[in-house]
Task: structure prediction
Amino acid sequence: MPVLTILVGLPALGALLVALLPKRLARPAALGASLATLGLALAAWARFDPTVPGAFALQDGPWPWIRDLGVSWALGLDGVGLVLVLVTAVLVPTALASDRTPGRAPAALLLLCESAVLGCFTALDLVLFYAFFEAMLLPVLLVLALWGGPGRLRAAVRVLLYTLAGSLPLLAAVAATWVHHRSATGVPSALLADLLATPVPTSWAPWLFAGFALAFAVKSAAVPLHGWLPDAYAEAPVGALVVLAGLLAKAGLFGFLRWALPLFPEAAIRAGPVLLALGALGVIYGGLMAWVQQDLKRVVAWTSVSHLALCLVGIGAGTPDALAGSAWLAAVHGLYVGALFLLVDLLEARSGRRGVDDFGGLGAMLPRFSFLLGLTVLAAIAVPGLAGFPGEILVIIGTWRVAPVAAVAGASGAVLGAVYLLRVLEKVCFGRPSETARVLVDLRPAPTLPLAVLGLLLVGLGVRPLVNVVTPATDRVAAALETARTVEAP
Amino acid sequence: MVSVGLLPVLVVSLLLFTIGVVGVLVRRNLLVVFMSLELMLNAVALAFVGFARARADMDGQVAALFVMAVAAAEVAVGLSLVILLFRTRHTTQLDDLTMLKG
Amino acid sequence: MDVALLWTLPGLPLFGAIVLAIAGRRASPAFAASMAGGTALGALGVAIWTLAATLRGMGARLAVDLGTWFAAGPTRASAVLAADPLTASMAVMVAGVGFLILLFSAGYMDAPEDRPGSWRFYACMDLFLGSMLLLVLADDLLLLFVGWEGVGVCSWLLIGYWFQDPVHAAAARKAFVVNRVGDAALLLALALLVGALGPRATLRIPEMQAVLAEDPSLLAGSATAAGLLLLFAATGKSAQIPLYTWLPDAMVGPTPVSALIHAATMVTAGAWLLLRLHFVLALSPVALGAVAVVGAASALWAGLLAIFPHDLKRVLAYSTISQLGLLFLGIGVGAGTAAYFHLLTHAFFKALLFLAAGSVVHALHHQDVRRMGGLARRMPWTTAAFLVGFLAIVGFPGFSGFFSKDAVLFAALAARPTDIGAGTFPLPVLLCMVGFVAALLTALYMSRILFLVFFGRYRGEGRPRESRPVLVVPLLVLSALALFGGLLDLPAWIGVDSGWLTRAAGPHLGGTPPAHGGAVEAALGLGLALASLAVVAWAGRRWVDRQDSTDSVGSALPGTARFLAAGGRVDGMYDALVVRPLRGLARSGVARLEASGVQRAGRAAAALLEAAGAWNGRVLQRGPVQDYALGIALGAAFLLLLAAVS
Result:
């Protein structure tokens, strides 16, 4: 049974339902579709057997799609894809449950986005991957542009411009890779397995890698290509925001792990120092910016930049532990950043404000909220026992061997994280309540459910990290890089 | 019957087509532009028929019939649009019809 | 009994914390206290059993391995706990002192406004105990790190227990952040170790020790770096120079917290790390020397700063830094057992001192020594307990502190300069002298407190009374421990069966076993005792029953006194050197760059798009339809041409 195809298609089907059903049933239908997707993702996990030889334990296809171009419909799941798919399946229902935008269109758009994201994480055909990679932005962009905050149009335009600037080189690189494969074998194909068998000539490789890397770097907001992120995150409504922050940014990092590094290992090795430097810069830059923000959403946005930069450091290092840590951190980051945005949105929904100094003393007035906020903050600063820790420590240890300075930057990021996130926690939850805070009422169980689920996941994944799910896939990438390294220096 | 070669037919077709194109590009009255459009279509139909005769292949004549049918439909739609346009704008001078600005 | 029982040591308190967290406000203070106390008692029982089990074969080792926690590449975190006499004795101390302090808390935290939140207090205390026990028993460095950060988080939660006060919240945050700097250093040290050990990389302590014993050259050039990073990490947790500034401010938290976390347990974690990883330090004399120097300097500096504060607990805080400094000194000169001995005795008498202070604070509702005095008459038991603690910390012969301090100082004297990377410079002698002076300062500042608080006239309001038994009983138990703790490791010159601790825990601590050197050690110890006695006598004359209620110290050197009274202005220095430049960098540097550079690039790109659109509107699509038709015609002609040509 083509589990993966159904998985990818189910949210889109849900979107169709949302468009057709009467208005009352639309939102519940959306939630239902996303929950069904979650169930299916869990079923896929149950079927996932990492001991199966070959890279992808679960596969659909390849079935021919555009015959003349050799483009197939091929979906597959490896460890990294699996954890990202699971995070997606968990985050979208929470986003839909917490979304306050009126009407049914946002829900439908978010479901379409989910389909595209799932497709992106499972595509085994390069053209298919490109299609999903581009497609996943459009629904979110629409939601941002139509239902966002006062600066939404400017933010949307900026997202579009940055993404385009990255996507055009990517398209060129994809085309070049396809052309090379066809001229090498005479048979057009865009399947990953086939492309891996025909490595591109060494004169092309750096350019093609750069084309891939540029798009992925823009998507994962690598400094200095991060300009689209702060405004977009600040203006987006919460449902789109959770999807944007929790999922789309990961696609860039995933792209490195699934496509750019395996296809061009020598170029990746040579580009390593650049990625390390940009990542290290991003960790510190993001941290410092997060420290001085006055808007709670922007603090979380810059936190995201800083943590994604740490993942980039891991990717630049290319050692097995650094890559595994990077993949794990990317997945878990979606959970805690999503939770943070949900919590901030709760405050904004009830009081209309989201300034760092607007609250205070919520620890006494809103104990359940404060507990969840504290838990999420601790997970974000990688306190051991919570989900963020294995990722951060694996990246730092793995990077030290290759680039001690970058590892030091990463560790400094941990210190900075404590500084700016605890500052926020202190201003919001400790001290005396402000005027705004006095009118707030604590969380009732129902709205808390998505947050409680996220909290439980953050604790559960901290106690029992599923890094062993990710390692077979990342070890493979690291091995490819290692082979290229030894070839480079005979 | 006088037997005509292919070349003269094509030359006439080309002439008609060119006159039609020039008419579309230069004339300022909307109805004259439509007539020029018809000229272009008929030129094409003529070329089809000429080729059909030269190659002894019925497909060209079938194509000419298609062209005539399509032209008729297009004229019907186009002229009703012209009438609507005239009713609102009270002019058929193309110089005055510039709503399709960028 | 099954070795798997070891997991209940961190597990029981952790379970208690979870139960209390779920129960929340529904738990009554009595239930919360019983839960916490009960789990602590249970942990204590298991700890004692474990110690007995490890002592049966002197130096036996019990280990329980739950497998790999997570692993990737050469980095592997294993969930394995191990107990040998060293770790077991430490666990007994942690659980025992923890239980006594929880008992004390039941009586101390009885204010009406604290009752609804008491579940939070006991849950955090239980969580802390669990983390600390995890830290002590962990056999894998990443598992140890879990406990390490765990105690940091609990410390933050407990210092900020009364979080409505912004001062408390700020103190809590300061503690966490300063600790975090040390934690980052520890992370880097672990990274360095994994990197250096190459294909044989392991983070399990016994395995790492075996690998390094086989092939010390693996760490080659980076041994010093590793040692220094570990030292830096330890200074954060154990409040030594340069990361000590959080401890004095942490005294705003409840007194039981100060007693447990900031006297007996968490602050010992740094020294504990260095003790456990002594084999890494041993590979670099420079690192050992640095440890010793940092310790001696901290002991001296904190001793000086302790003479001035009016806050009773603040004096004790500086005292903790000073005593831990002596501990670090002992580690640095290779006297691991002496240092561990002092760690245990210090835990007993410092917890005792803090709890006695807590008894006073509870009765008087403030911490200012200027409004105390003459409490000996009104609170006899508390006074007696404090007196025992005082004699122990000052090192009165016969009390536990005497033996342990003496052992450290003698070891410092006996060390060779090359062992601590000092070449021919007589660093050990200097260090011993500094330690001696620090010990005398201990006598000075403790006497000041003793006399100001308990003797002379009562300078406050109201009629303070002795505390309830629930507060006094733990004091008595700890007094006994402070009194008789010295028996753990009597030096050879005493004559009776000595060095029990050395024999039991020594093999696990490395370093040269302190050759308890007869006459010199005795002379050193008794000399120190006599000098301290003289200081105490002088202090008594100065501070008992002065006519003015102030305790102006250093009227001879007012400038220096003011400088030291202000904590040496170290906080201001850190603020100016680190915090403000960073924040300035963030605000003016990074934020400005972001706003002008990055944002302008974005705006420029958007403007470009707009210009393109405008050009389209202005030039390409002006309006007349025939222009469009011309375009179509030209385009079609071009395509036809292309088709014809190719």
